[in-house]
């Protein structure tokens, strides 16, 4: 993945979604009005976060068997990048909620559980900082990460669905709401998700490369 | 002659009025639909700027990585 084509692809897709997301037609729905376009910007943040956390748990499992420092760094840096996307998702979600649900934070199950799942990963970083010995830190934090990942999946995709929520895709509805099935919106929504996932992955690789350079300098 | 001159002046005066009505709507591609295109342009400029910045960071990092390889 050390090539530039996918970086350019991600950039082009993100720029495309900014243009098409604001200008192409969307369904006319009450309350949502034009804010339905937030689907192209708010939801991809979460997709990018989930992909980055998946990368993290993959390298955590790998680091337990290989005991390699590189795998450990990969696990941390993808969490570091994923948290940024999670926070962006929370803030954009709160803003969207203010003008459609009435409040920034209405203690909706989806909002609460999303916040908790971000906190889970803050705990991962705090746990790492608490342990000085490198081997021990890698092992304990990898095991924590293996527990945190399914917790995050349950918190984001299972628990909100068992409760009544204002958020689309919850309260018994599997998947997204009917408005997402609009073919015009799919033309923008899928490229948006792919584009932001690529950008997120790119930022993660930059963080990883920086960290491994720093580590090299420390060892010398 | 005077009459024709007067009517010509009056006609020119009205033309100016017409011109004022029509002349405002110029180059309206960025003004249509409640000027939304302006917002799109701003967002695209910001995105292009940030992405170009990301590319430049990547480039600098690559340079440092290469230097480091030579050292070791």
From TrEMBL, chain A:
The keyword Transmembrane helix applies. The chain crosses the membrane at residues 7-27, 39-61, 82-101, 113-131, 143-162, 188-206. GO terms for cellular component: plasma membrane. It comes from the Bacteria. Pfam families: Cytochrom_C_asm. It is found in: Membrane. Keywords: Cytochrome c-type biogenesis, Membrane, Transmembrane, Transmembrane helix. Its main location: membrane. InterPro entries: Cyt_c_assembly (IPR002541), Cyt_c_biogenesis_CcmC (IPR003557), Cyt_c_biogenesis_CcsA/CcmC (IPR045062). It is a multi-pass membrane protein. Residues 35-159 form the Cytochrome c assembly protein domain. One of its GO terms (molecular function) is heme binding. GO terms for biological process: cytochrome complex assembly. Belongs to the CcmC/CycZ/HelC family. Required for the export of heme to the periplasm for the biogenesis of c-type cytochromes. This is Heme exporter protein C. It comes from Pedobacter chinensis.
